[in-house]
Amino acid sequence: MFDARLRPLIDPPLNALARRLSGTGITPNMVTALGFLIGLMAAFALVIEQYYAAAVLIALSRIADGMDGAIARHAAPRSRHPNAKTQESDLGGYYDIVADFLFYAGMVLAFAVGRPEHALMAAFLIFCFVGSGSSFLAYAIVAAKRGDNHEKQGKKSFYYLTGITEGSETIAVLLAFCIFPAYFAPIAAIFGALCLITTFGRVLQATRDFG
């Protein structure tokens, strides 16, 4: 819901840093891997209930998640892509998507491992993530098959369907879990319900657009 509104604030500093890093040999896939590794560290911090450390690591991981695309757009192409103007690639987009979805579900799982009394609500939230994520990716697959594309959320490697619960809202909720761990259950219940509403809205949109 807020991703498109935040892009004008997020993109300029990311692009500036990406331009500085573009000639260092650092590739977008390296940054994706680094972000995922930091995410694993955040998961471990959640398991041992070091919530403030987890919050910092989550923030760093998501900064890396934004940086990989920025570097891809600004870095000089590699020789294996002789006709490319940047290092943007389908494989890089694939890595980014897989890492993102594992990250989001992994944070919730790690919290449940650290505090098993919240395991049921964590399972509910992961279920809601699956609904939101599958409706998002399924729409993108069909849109790509039809040749549809748009860049409301900035340039993406696939059709980016908006909704109530997007990346920025999910990150905010993960940080809220770290800051207010005692309130995991109500936060998860509310956000899970919003994810289900988002899923339902995307199914309705797909019905209108593809029916």
Automatic annotation (TrEMBL):
The chain crosses the membrane at residues 21-45, 93-113, 119-142, 183-204. GO terms for biological process: phospholipid biosynthetic process. Keywords: Membrane, Transferase, Transmembrane, Transmembrane helix. Gene3D superfamilies: 1.20.120.1760. One of its GO terms (cellular component) is membrane. GO terms for molecular function: phosphotransferase activity, for other substituted phosphate groups. The keyword Membrane applies. Coiled coil: none annotated. InterPro entries: CDP-OH_P_trans, CDP-OH_PTrfase_TM_dom. This is CDP-alcohol phosphatidyltransferase. It comes from Thalassospira mesophila. The lineage of its organism: Bacteria, Pseudomonadati, Pseudomonadota, Alphaproteobacteria, Rhodospirillales.
